[in-house]
Amino acid sequence: MDVNAFLSWFWENRRILPWRSDRTPYSTWISEAMLQQTRVATVLDYYPRFLSRFPDPKALATASEDEVLKVWEGLGYYSRAKNLMKGAAYICENYNGDLPSDPDLLIRIPGIGPYMTGAISSLAFGKAVPAVDGNVIRIYCRLYSLPLIASEGATFKEIYKRAGNDIPEENPGDFNEALMDLGATVCTPRSPKCSLCPFSNECSAFLLGKQEDFPVKKQKKEVPVEEHTILKIFLGEKILVRKRPDKGLLSGLYEFIDLTGTLSEKEVEKWASDLFGQKKKGNSSDHFTILPLGGAHHIFSHLRWNMTGYEIHLPAEKDAEKAARSLGDLVSKKEYEALAFPSALRAYR
Question: Is the pLDDT of residue 161 over 80?
């Protein structure tokens, strides 16, 4: 690899991104956490808002989980936000609120793994530490026609060693960012733009005409599907919500009442009548209404949800309120708007 030529390519073609100006160790950490498994275009909106609300580790460490998740709402992979909170608390407790420059200390911080250690070390502290992610693995596998599966631990070790041999002592951050930009804009997973690549004359996969064969694709497992019926329930002016458990999928976020399976309107009507002791509006003794909200789906990394939604309006009567509180919390519209809900429920928000 001609590192100098590669850096020259980067300096001429680098992306202009907000986290690349006025860089601090903390802002680098936040941006790298947000950029994991998330498109740059999405992070552009979240990054300044997050830094404005939580400008340093102390502000993040002392915030409530609900506050942080609300600012993170819609960005997905919420464990990243929780790890940032844990990491901020650790930094305040052990390093007086400043990220350490030593890579061996950085990697001990909750939520900071090998990739982020390399990114922070090189970008914020100028240390020659590789930052190896899926983009970098793909570039090296194509460059040398390495028949490796990207997700395997042995692949990471091999690419980390190769990148470690290439990264220069001068401008190590630019080298890592050059790999990031190359993987994001040129050496993409599908239809790579090889004519624009600074390595096209030496890339083994390109010369063989087998760019998309590297890295080797692991056989995909069939994604399991779950059926859910989402009930957005109003009692007078209040909305019924509940907080998901502290562990597991979408932990700590708020949701509506979620019933397993796909229920018809008649089945939802019976469920509501049995629970709240009331009947659907339609004659003199009836008290509630049901409005179908339609279907939606959400694909997680390992799971697909198929959803059917209904909106139920109940009068604010004592018995109905008691039944509702057995399911969750009744909140005002203002309180509701301050809660963090998962992207999976965006269709029903």
Answer: yes
Q: Is residue 162 a contact partner of residue 156, using CB atoms and an 8 Å limit?
A: no
Tell me: the pLDDT tens digits for 73-125? 999 889 999 999 999 999 999 999 999 999 999 999 999 999 999 999 999 99
Q: What average pLDDT does the segment 273-286 reach?
A: 67
CATH architecture of 225-348: Alpha-Beta Complex (3.90)
Which residues are CB-contacts of 64 (< 8 A; sequence separation ≥ 6)?
none
Tens digits of residue pLDDT in 294-344: 999 999 988 999 999 999 999 888 888 999 999 999 999 999 999 999 999
- Tokens 């983009």 locate to 135
Q: What is the 3-state secondary structure (H, E, C) of the chain?
A: CCHHHHHHHHHHHCCCCHHHCCCCHHHHHHHHHHHCCCCHHHHHHHHHHHHHHCCCHHHHHCCCHHHHHHHHCCCCCCHHHHHHHHHHHHHHHHHCCCCCCCHHHHCCCCCCCHHHHHHHHHHHHCCCCCCCCHHHHHHHHHHCCCCCECCCHHHHHHHHHHHHHHCCCCCHHHHHHHHHHHHHHCCCCCCCCHHHCCCCCCCHHHHHCCHHHCCECCCCCCCCEEEEEEEEEEECCEEEEEECCCCCCCCCCEECEEEECCCCHHHHHHHHHHHHCCCECCCCCCCEEEEEEEEEEEECCCCEEEEEEEEEEECCCHHHHHHHHCCCEEECHHHHHCCCCCHHHHHHC
Which tokens go with 170? 């001068």
pLDDT at position 286, please? Answer: 55
Second-level CATH architecture of 3-213: Orthogonal Bundle (1.10)
32 is catalytic: yes
Task: Give per-residue pLDDT as tens, 70-80.
Answer: 999 999 889 99
Range 33-51 average pLDDT: 95
Place 284 in a pLDDT band, splitting at 50, 70 and 90. Answer: very low
Other CB atoms within 10 Å distance of the CB of residue 234: 19
Domain ranges of the chain: 3-213, 225-348
Q: Which of 32, 158, 177, 255 is catalytic?
A: 32
